[in-house]
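Subject: Sanity check before I submit

Could someone independently write out the structure tokens for this chain? I want to compare against mine line by line before I put it in a report. The sequence has 139 residues.
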Amino acid sequence: TIIDRIKGELDDFWVLFIGTIAYSFIPLVYIFITTPIELYIAQFVYGLAAAVTLPPWYALFTRHIDKEHEGIEWGVYQTMVDLGGAAAASIGGFIAYRFGFENLFIIVSILSFIGAFFLLAIRKDLNYSKKIYDTKKRA
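---
Independent answer below. Compare away.
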């Protein structure tokens, strides 16, 4: 992938950030879907956005894991993602039932968009070097 060809983490960050911004707008598309083919297209685009967004996230996360604590940090990460997904499904179900799906899609899009800007906080911790990242130098 392109993020592996370009050394340093700045490219990883921008692919992640732009992909997350794109990912944030996709729930709004569901408001306008009227046919099954439109749903398939929206899901396809959602999948493309995930395919663009997840690799740089995993690459950045992996490079910044504390040495000799990889298992626990990946375990905590995955547990939090799964618990967050379960909570989001429950809350989303309530919102859809109480306020309608259109409002749910708008809320999800807004929260995802806001979440994308939280990524800006990690920029200061990135390795901007064009040299090959040396994983043995991790502390």
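---
OP: Matches mine. For the report I'm noting this point. The first helix runs from residue 2 to 5.
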